[in-house]
Amino acid sequence: MRQHRLASRTLALLLALVIAAPQFALARYEPKERKNAFSREEEIKVGQQAAAEVMQQMPILPENDPLTKYIQKLGAKLVAKAPGEKWPYSFRVVNQKEINAFALPGGPMFVNVGTIQAADNEAQLAGVMGHEISHVVMRHATASATSKMKWQAPLSILGAVLGSKGGALAQAAQLGIGFGVNSVFLKYSRDAETEADLVGTDILYDAGFDPKQMAVFFEKLAAEGGGRGPEFLSSHPNPGNRMQRVQQEVASLQPRTYAKNSSDFKSAKQRAMNANPLTAQQIADQAKQGAYKNQVPGGTQVPAGGVPSSSGIQPSNNFKTLNGGAFDISYPENWAANQGQNAAVLISPEGGAQGNQIAYGVMIDSYTPQTANSLNDATQQLLSSLMQQNQGLKQAGSPQSIRVNGQPGMSVELLGQSPLQNNGQQVRERDWLVTIDRGDGTLNYMVFISPEPDFSSLRPTFEKMLRSFKVRSQ
User: 3-state SS of the chain?
Assistant: First the structure.
């Protein structure tokens, strides 16, 4: 009798635990990690390069546009619930009629005005964006590129790429692999789509949006698209049984109440419906005529009055430290440090550099003069070399002696031409060259780069970076 009573109590306790904590009864979807040859730094870099290309090819709404601000606010709410590694996400709106949204490696995302127009509710719009964030989380684009490299590259080269950090980007370039808006690597497989649906379901649930609305919106696109289908579905194929999979994933989560349409969504929806976005053909025609060439990589359009500092360019007041092989330096936490060939380092804001074109940033490198009797002689040799390599670059004064954390140095300002344009004319650039004697016959040097209209506002940041620079002892 006592054993029967004990068994009954145990069963009752187990049932109570299951009822009180249903989240423990079923597990969330756990995506499988895909093989990826790209480092985090390379992932971010290819995404930024591709985003800069998008800025030159498509009509991007300004950052102060109400639709942009709304999409950025919604994106931030979703990103806060994204699992795994935290990427430097950014959100922009394309003034295009067709329904589409796409995310680039490392986090840049673009949402068409037509997508905002088509969403019946905020959960559907959040569903499209959550789905795209999931592609970033799972690194689907670079994983696809890695798979392609496996078959294209000679095995000897591939082994070096997969076995060494930082080699995938160069190898991808050698094989002609890019990540622009029309890249084959942004056209996902059905397996990747299923994965993005399930990861997106969890993001939407945690952010307070009904995940089923994501599947409802995609099914709506498929039904309305006719034979050809919307642009979005051309790169996001229907994996089949989408609604069923999403419902199964929702069933594994604890029941909750979902948010209704926010006032921000209602305002954005009304603004989008009153807009007159361009068609894809109109955009292509205008791009051929160079209509978007004056868009700064960070996203702000260059007006007649000069080059503004966009929020992406504006440095954070919080700094982090780069521990280089030969030096240490602190820099704004919203800027990125990338190491190039021969251990050169470029620190720049998002969109501040594209390829070998640097509009905003700091380049750090070393220089060995042929023969030099003094730091001034070595600096003059470096100046001659820089001016030979950059036509139009001129000194704006004589080099001045300074000290950088106790080390002797030289400082001189230069004037040149920025890669940015204003009404078809090259913008004037101001560069600040600082050399530091390493004491072993070589120099460390830094070139602080900015369009001249923005240099004075960036100078305090440049000076703070210079004060933090420390040469490591040999």
Answer: CHHHHHHHHHHHHHHHHHHHCHHHCCCCCCCCCCCCCCCHHHHHHHHHHHHHHHHHHCCECCCCCHHHHHHHHHHHHHHCCCCCCCCCCEEEEECECCCCEEECCCCEEEEEHHHHHHCCCHHHHHHHHHHHHHHHHCCHHHHHHHHHHHHHCCHHHHHHHHHCCCCHHHHHHHCCCCCCCCCHHHCCCHHHHHHHHHHHHHHHHHHCCCCHHHHHHHHHHHHHCCCCCCHHHHHCCCCCCHHHHHHHHHHCCCCCCCCCCCHHHHHHHHHHHCCCCECHHHHHHHHHCCCCCCECCCCCECCCCCCCCCCCCCCCCCEEEEECCCEEEEEECCEEEEECHHHCEEEEECCCEECCEECCEEEEEEECCCCCCCHHHHHHHHHHHHHHHCCCCEECCCCEEEEECCEEEEEEEEEEEEEEEECCEEEEEEEEEEEEECCCCCEEEEEEEEEHHHHHHHHHHHHHHHHHCEECCC
The phi, psi pair for 328, rounded to 5°, reads -120, 145
Q: Which residues are catalytic?
A: 132, 197
Domain coordinates of the chain in residue numbers?
40-288, 319-471
What's the rounded Cα separation, in Å, for the pair 167 and 146? 12
Please give the CATH architecture assigned to the domain spanning 319-471.
3-Layer(aba) Sandwich (3.40)
pLDDT for 315-342, tens place per residue? 888 999 998 677 889 999 989 888 754 5
Give the tens place of pLDDT for each residue, 40-92: 888 888 888 888 888 888 899 988 889 999 999 999 999 999 998 889 999 99
Torsion of the alpha carbons at 386, 388, 393 and 398, rounded to the nearest 10: 60
Considering the entire predicted model, what is its pTM?
0.56
Q: Is 268 exposed, middle or buried (0-12, 13-18, 19+ CB in 10 A)?
A: buried
Taking 70 as the pLDDT cut, the residues of the chain under it are 1-27, 148-187, 224-240, 293-312, 324, 340-343, 354-356, 422-424, 473-474
Looking from the CA of 262 toward its CB, the CA atoms found within 13 Å total 16
